[in-house]
TrEMBL record:
The keyword Ribosomal protein does not apply. It comes from the Bacteria. The keyword Membrane does not apply. Signal peptide: none annotated. Gene3D superfamilies: alpha/beta hydrolase. One of its GO terms (molecular function) is hydrolase activity. This is Alpha/beta hydrolase family protein. It holds the Pfam family Hydrolase_4. Residues 33-137 form the Serine aminopeptidase S33 domain. It comes from Rubripirellula reticaptiva. Keywords: Hydrolase. The lineage of its organism: Bacteria, Pseudomonadati, Planctomycetota, Planctomycetia, Pirellulales.
């Protein structure tokens, strides 16, 4: 099937989801495509066009991709929106995979998601065997003893030793807090992680299915993840598991706002996707196979 290098598509049960399909510039190296899941309320371009940069780089190594808006975000209509958002996202990711199988030669997908998109990607993979890999950026995290040690050394102790902090405290003694005006504070994040035990069971389930999972964390989520060995300490049950890996970018912020950080991140993700694609047996669709939703 001849397709443009890049095209906007409308798909889904209600023809309500909008995405951008990026063909591979190089000869396709496998039957694997990448689906990029929107983070939070950001649209399909990703934060600071991260998804665009990623799609372009993937294309150069023979891997096509689809970046799309979940319902009610960006240009996708909020149609049929019921139930938990994470379940709705999984259903819409499945519809995106349906489109890929129906209209392209790709037969399997790797999901990439940042923040809530990471949560949605793991959840979607649990119920869709067409997913052969998940790259989750700043996904779920759980504070460990090591987390508290690193937080004290890197955050609390320097503040205790800073004279200016003590001077501010002295100046505040005897001052009525009602006399101090303050700006509007940001609200609390409603994103919720499953329990640690549930996460372990879900990751083990995916590993048994040989889904390759790579977890990327940044310094932007220091409220729950702050050192390179924390993933292993969070999930000791997964130690030595060949289908699970992690990497920590301590100096990178949550959305890779700096161009040089995005370049490093994109290169890291592309290399990981390439390794997943190489390790994934090519699957072809026989004459009796009909993609879901076709």
């Amino acid at each position: 099937m001849n397709m443009p290098d890049q095209q906007a598509i409308v798909f889904g049960k209600y023809e309500h989801l909008l995405g951008v399909w990026k063909n591979a510039d190089a000869e396709s190296m496998s039957g694997v495509a990448v689906v990029m899941v929107t983070p939070g309320m950001l649209h399909h371009s990703g934060p600071f066009r991260l998804h665009v940069d990623l799609a372009n780089e993937l294309s150069t190594i023979g891997i096509p991709s689809l970046r799309f808006d979940l319902s009610g975000i960006g240009e996708s209509l909020g149609v049929g929106v019921t139930g938990r958002s994470i379940d709705r996202a999984a259903n819409e990711i499945a519809q995106a995979i349906d489109w890929i199988l129906k209209h392209t030669k790709s037969r399997q997908v790797v999901l990439f998601g940042l923040c809530s998109g990471a949560d949605d990607s793991v959840h979607a993979a649990l119920s869709d065997e067409r997913v052969v890999g998940v790259i989750a950026m700043d996904g779920c995290g759980y504070r460990t003893p090591g987390f508290h040690v690193h937080r004290f050394i890197g955050h609390t102790l320097p503040r205790i030793l800073r004279p200016s902090k003590w001077m501010k405290l002295v100046k505040r003694i005897g001052v009525d807090d009602n006399e101090i005006s303050s700006s509007l504070q940001p609200g609390t994040d409603v994103r919720e992680f499953p329990s640690r035990d549930q996460s372990v069971q879900e990751l083990k389930q995916l590993a048994r299915r040989k889904v390759q999972m790579h977890f990327v964390y940044t310094g932007g989520v220091g409220e729950y993840f702050n050192y390179a060995g924390q993933f292993t300490e969070m999930f000791p049950e997964l130690a030595g598991e060949p289908y699970v890996s992690s990497h920590y970018f301590a100096a990178m912020d949550h959305v890779a706002i700096l161009a040089e950080d995005r370049a490093v991140l994109v290169n890291h993700i592309v290399n990981r996707v390439q390794s997943i694609a190489v390790a994934t047996p090519t699957k072809t669709m026989d004459s009796t196979e009909v993609p879901t939703g076709a």
